[in-house]
Write a structure and sequence with these properties.
The protein has helices spanning 17-24, 46-58, 78-90, 119-136, 157-168, 176-186, 190-195, 228-241, 257-276; strands at residues 11-14, 33-36, 61-64, 96-99, 102-104, 108-113, 141-143, 171-175, 202-207, 211-214, 217-219, 246-248. The protein is of the alpha/beta class. The chain has one domain (11-282): TIM Barrel (Alpha-Beta Barrel). The strands form 3 sheets. An 8-stranded parallel beta barrel has the order 1-2-3-4-7-8-9-12. A two-stranded antiparallel ribbon has the order 5-6. A two-stranded antiparallel sheet has the order 10-11. Helix 4 packs parallel to helix 5 (157-168) and helix 8 (228-241) runs parallel beside helix 9.
């Protein structure tokens, strides 16, 4: 029996400023936790700072970073990492995750760039993850990213991810949509890739929509509803890992709150279907 516990439970939503008004006026039962990018909230005061503080008193929170640049050539910004630690401590953030990518090279690139899939890059990234975990005094979760080119590739994407997770002894933020997007763009089997990831390292899931540029080119936008094929892959992810907390990402083209809650209802429905197949004591809790 799987007795693993997670930092939160159920379904969650990314907290955008456009949603703060609607969420302040309602307490949707679908939302068990919220997620924010710490870069958007560190040091924020005034009206938004007060609103954010009230939300952290109502909901458990996760933090999903944007600018750690764990695979970048620049020296690790340890001052920023300490700021993140203070933010996590101040608001009792349950988990900190980041992208297995880089976003700086002598300055911010404003995009998530793929790390070369090489043994050298594995060791480089692992050293930096360990340093971050030492400063934060907690484990972090690295997310499998979507990517559109693989420069300098010497090993497969799955082997690269698994090597980093094992050597760094960190957790995994499993992005279901990214697996599907990459499977189309790079021509591999999404379910086979999913089942090769270490279930025991998963902290939580992301699910989102994307844009179809062509039959063989998908763009990970977080700006559209989740498609049926990705919902099906989420079902397979629960089969592989268990009933894991799952966050709906929507970063732009944000619809009315009720439309997002309808998508969250589908997350909860799939979670409940898997929970019914398990013993009550096997269902994950906070």
């Amino acid at each position: 029996m799987d007795t693993k516990t997670y930092p939160v439970h159920g379904a969650g939503l990314g907290l955008k400023r456009a949603l703060m008004g609607p969420l302040a006026e309602a307490s949707p039962t679908q939302i068990n936790f919220l997620e924010v990018a710490p870069e958007n909230w560190i040091g924020v005061g005034g009206k938004y700072g007060k609103q954010f503080h009230r939300f952290t008193e109502r909901y458990p929170f996760l933090a999903h970073g944007l600018s750690l640049s764990i695979g970048g050539p620049d020296k690790l910004d340890t001052a920023f990492v300490r700021d993140v630690k203070n933010f996590l401590d101040q608001f009792n953030i349950r988990c900190y995750s980041e992208h297995l990518s880089y976003c700086s090279d002598g300055g911010h690139l404003y995009d998530l760039m793929p790390i070369p899939f090489t043994e050298e890059a594995v060791h480089y990234v692992v050293t930096r993850i360990r340093e971050v975990q030492d400063i934060l005094e907690r484990r972090i979760a690295m997310e499998n990213i979507s990517y559109y080119a693989a420069p300098g590739q010497e090993m497969s994407e799955i082997d690269f991810i698994n090597a980093v997770l094992k050597e760094a002894d960190c957790d995994l933020l499993l992005d279901v949509n990214n697996i599907y997007v990459n499977s189309i763009n790079h021509g591999y089997d999404a379910e086979e890739f999913l089942k090769a990831l270490p279930a025991e390292r998963v902290a939580y899931f992301h699910i989102a929509g994307h844009y179809k540029e062509a039959e063989d080119l998908l763009v990970d936008t977080h700006g559209a509803p989740v498609i049926d094929t990705v919902w099906d892959l989420l079902d397979k992810a629960y089969e592989h890992v268990g009933v894991v907390p799952t966050l709906l990402e929507r970063d732009f083209n944000i619809p009315p709150l009720q439309e997002l809650l309808t998508e969250m209802d589908r997350i909860i429905e799939i979670q409940n279907n898997w929970s019914l197949r398990s013993e009550p004591s096997a269902v994950k809790t906070r």
